[in-house]
């Protein structure tokens, strides 16, 4: 037997080493989406040399599977969500030259990643990797390092060596500025002519790649067999600073861009409006200022848009798409115009009637408070203060007070 495929069956139980004893000719093992337990002896040497191993959702034990060390022909490996909580072994970093796809996501792997010799797809998301981002990847289609503890800056090689369709570095500790080299990402810089097949991406038959669930900010899209057509950049929830480089606007094939929850400043580049295929754009929770570029009115395919909690001002550009989003997409700014209830002047400035307390009504003097303050000041300085400064006034005041009290006593006594 060369191919063993029983994936997506939710099988339960324990797999033993003896189950593989007669599978010396096995080259393809596809058994993902089961609930099987396989924890062989650390010294076990498999009788087979597989090219494809997919054991997603198996329980492989807390230690990294040592038996993989003997798989010299491996090109596809998926052991995601396998309960591994170990340090990435150094021997695994020296993968075979033919290695194409690697998925180690949703484990608890730790350590630093200096180099991975993978040529197509890498998914290390939802682990505990630390240190700087790896510096020596070759040309990739998908790179997902999200939800780890990577630190440092976004390396410049991303624009030189990657032809990504998907780049996800979200929810790490990445700092520094967004590199200008993003405009070199070839697939993203090309409009995808899907229908006339001018753009012909690879289509893969590997389940972990085809069924990849791409979570865009605020929505979920199951792309399935069209994943090869998706282009995405997600750098959200990091510590990026500086301005959004205008070079990002050259990625006209980009469908999803997420820079939310960083510390980005400056204006939104006007040429982002050239990315007419954009479906999801999230720039929320930064420190961006200025106006929303008028060119955004050309983004007719947007189904998710969020620029909330910045310092944006002026009128929201008029277009069918931008007016279709809820107010929450714009909250925390100083914007006006539909879909907000705040009206604008002809120059795009908030009118007095709707300026959230910063209008002329908010600047009017409240005479009630003024009269109270003046009454207190006059009463204090006209009556109380002289008693402190003039001794004769104090004597006369207390004599008069004593005289009144005496009369009241006689009155009540009789």
TrEMBL record:
Keyword Metal-binding listed: no
Annotated compartments: Cell membrane
Entry's transmembrane regions: 367-390
Topology term for the membrane: Single-pass type I membrane protein
InterPro entries: Leu-rich_rpt (IPR001611), LRR_dom_sf (IPR032675), RLP23-like (IPR046956)
Main location: membrane
Domain of life, source organism: Eukaryota
A cellular component term, taken from the record's GO annotations: plasma membrane
Pfam families listed in its UniProt record: LRR_1
Swiss-Prot/TrEMBL keywords: Cell membrane, Glycoprotein, Leucine-rich repeat, Membrane, Receptor, Repeat, Signal, Transmembrane, Transmembrane helix
Entry similarity comment: Belongs to the RLP family.
UniProt name for this protein: Leucine-rich repeat-containing N-terminal plant-type domain-containing protein
Source organism (scientific name): Gossypium gossypioides (Mexican cotton)
